[in-house]
Amino acid sequence: ARADYSIDDSDYSVLTFSQNPTGPKWGPFGADTGEVLSILLSNGTYETIDASQCLDNAACSSSDNCAVQFSFTGSGITIYVLQAGPQGMSASLTIDSASPTSATLAAPPAPQYYIPRVPLFNVQNLVSGTHTAVMKVLDWNGGFSGMMLDYINVNQAVVAAPSSNT
User: Fold this and answer.
1) pTM summary value
2) CA distance 58 to 148
């Protein structure tokens, strides 16, 4: 998909995170934070995640209410995630208070358990303008989702509203 600009760790202030105050939290994670994220694998070893390929992360279930909200100006978005570890992810996306759509990704294959820059949502052909998107982390396979937001590409191709004949 076309990208006229990206929302990533250089544009962190446009993202608003929410979560259950007593549950898991979204955590900033990237080369600029100094944070290190290691994921426990089924063989008992840890995999260290490349900080340059992930903006934020959360390990949440639906009851934790982990969500990220952002506004964008354009006609479409593609949300990319980093898949890492033996856990898949599931999320819903709502744009401008419309009905949510959902997407699920299985866990990445062993033994690497690692796939960067995976598109989770690709929504195009919105009427050009300013839109608000909310992505909420959902349960995956009856348990938590290992969500690692990488970046969001915004398409600014001009899409006109349908004309109406009266």
Assistant:
1) 0.84
2) 6
